[in-house]
Amino acid sequence: MTKLSVNINKIATLRNARGHNRPDLLQAARDCERFGAQGITVHPRPDERHIRYQDVRDLKRIVTTELNVEGNPTPDFLELVREVRPEQVTLVPDAPDAITSNAGWDTVRHQEYLQDVVADLKSLGARVSIFLDPVPELVRAAASTGTDRIELYTEDYARRYHADREHAIRAYREAAEVAQQLGLGLNAGHDLDLDNLAYLHQNLPGLAEVSIGHALICDALYMGLENTIQLYRRQLQ
Fold this sequence. Notes:
The chain is of the alpha/beta class. The chain is about 45% helix and about 15% strand.
C-alpha cells in the first residue's frame, strides 16, 4: 500500500500571513490524520516563511502517524532533527532562497557528504530518504550512501503528463526498478495532483509513499479538507 503524507507548509503560509494562529497548524495536522492522512510532512526553511522550527517541535508531540521533516542538512536543520527525532528525514538540496524544491541531489558528486549525514541521522533512529531526479546512476550512488529510501522529484513528470503520460513516466519507472533491485525504499513528491497521481502509482513498482501539499491544499479550498484527503487516498488504491 502506498501511503499519503500530507505536506502542511501551505497551511503555515496562510497562518503566517496574519501573524496569529489561524488556521491552527497543530489542529490542521490532527484533522489531516483524522481524515485519512498516513503521515504529516513539513519542510522548514531558514527564513521560516511557512513552517517554523518551533512548529516541528510541536508537531512531534501530537502527530500519531509519521512525521516526515524535509530540508537541506545545514547545521541548524540537523540540530533540529537531532532534537525532534522524526520518523523520517528527507534530504533536499534547497538553496536558502528557493521558493520550492527545484532539483534533486547529485549523489555522485556529494557521495561522501551524504554518507556522513545519512549515518548521523540513522543513528538517531530516523528513516532517511534522499530527494533525487529519476536517473539510474544517481539512484545507484544514493544506495551507496546508506540511505533507506529515495524520493523521486516528480515535477518533470507532472509537467509532461498531459502531453504524453507514457513518455512522462518512463524515466521514473526505470529509476524505480533500479531502486527495487538495490533494496531501496521509494517515495515520490512534487506537483502531484488528482489528475496525475493514479497513473504514477500504477506505474512505479514499490512506491511506498507520496508527499503532497500544494495541490491538495488548493483542492481543499473547493472540496473541503476531509473530502480532498479521501480523494487522494482513492488514487492510491
